Amino acid sequence: MIDKLYIIKQILETDEDTDIKILSILDLANENPDKENIHLIEERVAKRKKIMIEVSLNTEKEKILAETEDISSTGAFIRTKKKIGKGEHISIKLTDPSGEEFTFVAKVMRVKSHGIGVMVKNIGLSHQDNLSKFLDRL
C-alpha cells in the first residue's frame, strides 16, 4: 500500500490531506474489491476551523459576496442567502485579516438554507501553501 501511495505522490505532487484521502480509498478498495462502498469515504479529511472571513464567489451566473463560517485546507462552509446548486463549480476568493488573498475553485457538496459546504477542487501551489500557513496560525 505504501508503495502505491509513494507512486501517486510522485505523479500528483499531493499534499497531506490528499494523501489521507488516497489511503482511505485504497484501503476501502482492498476491503471491497467490487467497489460498492467507495462512496462511504468521508469527504472531509481536514479539521475545519471556525472563522468568519469575507469571500467573493463567482458562479457561472453571478458574483456573490458572502462569508465563511468555517474553513480548512480542503473545504469550507460559506454563509450565503443566494441559491447555488449542489455539484456546481465556483471560483472563491478570500482575504485573510492580514490582507493575504487566496483564490481557488471549489465544488458545492452540500446546500443548506443558510449557506453551502464546498470542497476545494483546484488551488495553485502557492495559494495552497499560504492558506495552510494561515490556517496553522488560527
Describe the structure.
This protein is an alpha+beta fold. The protein has two domains: 2-40, no CATH class; 49-137, predicted glycosyltransferase like domains (Thrombin, subunit H, Beta Barrel), CATH 2.40.10. The chain contains three helices and seven strands; from the N terminus they run ααβββββββα. A six-stranded antiparallel β-barrel has the order 2-3-4-7-6-5. The radius of gyration is 16 Å and the shape is globular.
- Counting structural domains, the number is 2
* End-to-end separation: 34 Å
Gyration radius, rounded: 16 Å
The CATH architecture category of the largest domain equals Beta Barrel
Name given to the CATH homologous superfamily of the largest domain: predicted glycosyltransferase like domains
The total count of strands amounts to 7
What are the key terms here?
globular, 2 domains, 3 helices, 138 residues, six-stranded antiparallel barrel, alpha+beta, 29% helix, Thrombin, subunit H
Short description:
29% of the residues lie in helices and 36% in strands. With 138 residues, the protein is an alpha+beta fold.
Write the layout of secondary structure elements.
Layout: H1 2-12, H2 16-31, E1 49-50, E2 54-58, E3 63-71, E4 75-79, E5 89-95, E6 101-112, E7 115-123, H3 125-137
Antiparallel strand pairs: 1-3, 2-3, 2-5, 3-4, 4-7, 5-6, 6-7
